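Okay, is this right?
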Amino acid sequence: MAASPKLPAFDPADPLGLDDLLEPEDLAVRDTVRGWAADRVLPHVAEWYEKGELPGIRELARELGSIGALGMSLEGYGCAGASAVQYGLACLELEAADSGIRSLVSVQGSLAMYAIHRFGSEEQKQQWLPRMAAGEVIGCFGLTEPDHGSDPAAMRTRAKRDAGGDWVLGGRKMWITNGSVAGVAVVWAQTEEGIRGFVVPTDSPGFSAPEIKHKWSLRASVTSELVMDDVRLPADAVLPEVTGLRGPLSCLSHARYGIVWGSMGAARSSFEAALEYARSREQFGRPIGGFQLTQAKLADMAVELHKGILLAHHLGRRMDAGRLRPEQVSFGKLNNVREAIDICRTARTILGANGISLEYPVMRHATNLESVLTYEGTVEMHQLVLGKALTGLDAFR
């Protein structure tokens, strides 16, 4: 009888051996983004979070462009043309540093750039995408309004044609990542033809983006209101290839996919902090990691963390094969963000009082994830998406 092959050693950082699913190119992307985040974000992010600012965001955007992280899953126009799995791995590594950094990249690539790439004219693509891919121009995405979040069909922002063919845009958008530093905004508005998207240079007269302060979540991120006061746009400012909610919702689905991965980055960072703490923190004469209750917490956290990464990987392979449905993205966001928050909260209990300190990443990740839980689709909306898919009955209204 042939000898049984020698099993690889158990790796606490990869207990399911998920790295075996990755190609060398995937690992190279992951390691590049992880290295950039370790060098440029982790040494400073606690201070940024405490001060509620993201200094040097334009420089950070150019650096992210230089490593191919902006619009990385798009083809052409200076974009990297990476696979969905590679984009997901990048989101995981960015959010392991901070959700605000991943949000910067997601909004740039999966919302603003994706909208122009998929629905824009060739002239719009040529004008904006190469500079956005390089990080020379930051973009934002205006859909949510002060009174309309989960019900975008009821948006009040309006665009009307005037006698000369120009568009006149008026309204407000709220909770817009990158808004006050953006050079271009993709804004969705009601028109006589239905909901349309507009490519709006932010230096247009009548456009302003006051920054939102006093946040207790996503503090290392730029969040703004968009105010359009009779902004005049040329006839060709409209995205020509889509009318209706299909446009913004398809962009959101692409961005939500990144969250499926990214949330696991925040969870991984918190788990690793708890594991290291449990190995070194002594109580009653020995490390707390040697007590049964602490080991039970660590085991449950590891199970949910790596199940979530496996789910993200599966969805990424489906996206690469052109088989990923929006309902499956809802499945991933609903599960992974909820589990990530639970992992952070459990990690906090292992760290005890130290868990609330910015010396450790756990509370920062936990508060950031409270925003991730509700933006780009609340828990309830994703539950209803799945409920409708399961029953065939629409419970939204």
